[in-house]
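Hey, quick one: can you model this chain's 3D structure?
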Amino acid sequence: MAGFLDRAKEQAQRGLTQGKQKLDDVQAQRAGGDLLKSLGAAYYAERRGSGSPQVTQQALQALESHIATHGDGFLRA
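Sure thing. Here's the predicted structure for all 77 residues.
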């Protein structure tokens, strides 16, 4: 009986770890999408004359930092 409980506990722990990893991945993808949207909005505002190159550059740097940390998988989704 103890072996069964140990295996069940191990499986539950593995499931929790996998679930947390999946949640982290989804949150990183969502954040990447938000940064990409911000970059697009900054570029559009700059082209229309109501934005600035500095804001566009900051948005680009934030996106590049996110990609360096989390990868660019959200660009393919």
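One thing worth noting: The mean pLDDT is 94.
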